[in-house]
């Protein structure tokens, strides 16, 4: 089980886990709940350059379509094929098997702590 207090967060409801120069990115349980049942996920392919703040993917649910924003500058090294094949993982395990992409990043921008993110969402 992922220690959510060890993650960093964005105001766009993504979480970020840093492991050396690799950053794993997903959406939070708050975002997954607001989206409803996720039915489709479009993620960038490995080798794609991403820029912090830009749209890098799309998450469709039975209620709406949401955009995935890049929290860092870098290059995608892996998109989670399990989520592409089974989008419901975003709802059932957003901090574990429901991760979205892994990126190599030279540096991280200032992100929110767990407590700051919970204050932002009112939880």
Helices and strands, with pairings:
Blueprint: E1 8-9, E2 14-19, E3 22-27, H1 29-35, E4 38-42, E5 49-50, E6 55-61, E7 65-69, E8 74-79, H2 81-85, H3 89-92, E9 101-104, H4 114-121
Antiparallel strand pairs: 1-2, 2-3, 3-9, 4-6, 5-8, 6-7, 8-9
Q: Could you characterize what this model shows?
A:
This protein is of the alpha+beta class and 123 residues long. It is 20% helix and 35% strand. The chain has four helices and nine strands. The strands form two sheets. It has a six-stranded antiparallel beta sheet. Strands 4-6-7 form a three-stranded antiparallel beta sheet. Strand 2 (14-19) and strand 3 (22-27) form a beta hairpin. The radius of gyration is 13 Å and the shape is globular. The chain starts with 7 loop residues before the first strand and ends with a helix. The relative contact order is 0.26.
The structure class reads alpha+beta
Helix content: 10-25%
Give helix and strand order, one letter per element, not per position: EEEHEEEEEHHEH
Number of helices: 4
Multimeric state of these chains? single chain
Mean pLDDT: 94
Given the C-alpha coordinates, what overall shape results?
A: globular
Our Rg estimate from Cα atoms comes to: 13 Å
Report the end-to-end length measured between terminal Cα atoms: 20 Å
| Total number of strands | 9
Largest sheet: 6 strands, antiparallel
Low-pLDDT residue intervals, each spanning 5 or more residues: none
**Relative strand content:** 25-35%
Query: How are the strands of the largest sheet arranged?
Result: 1-2-3-9-8-5
């Amino acid at each position: 089980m992922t220690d959510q207090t060890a993650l960093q967060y964005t105001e766009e409801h993504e979480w970020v886990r840093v492991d050396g120069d690799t950053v794993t990115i997903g959406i939070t349980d708050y975002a997954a709940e607001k989206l409803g049942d996720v039915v489709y996920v479009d993620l960038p392919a490995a080798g794609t350059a991403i820029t912090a703040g830009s749209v890098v993917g799309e998450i469709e649910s039975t209620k709406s379509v949401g955009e995935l924003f890049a929290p860092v500058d870098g290059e995608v090294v892996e998109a989670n094929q399990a989520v592409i094949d089974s989008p419901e993982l975003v709802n059932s395990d957003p901090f574990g098997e429901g991760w979205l992409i892994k990126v190599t990043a030279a540096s991280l921008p200032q992100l929110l702590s767990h407590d700051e993110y919970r204050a932002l969402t009112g939880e």
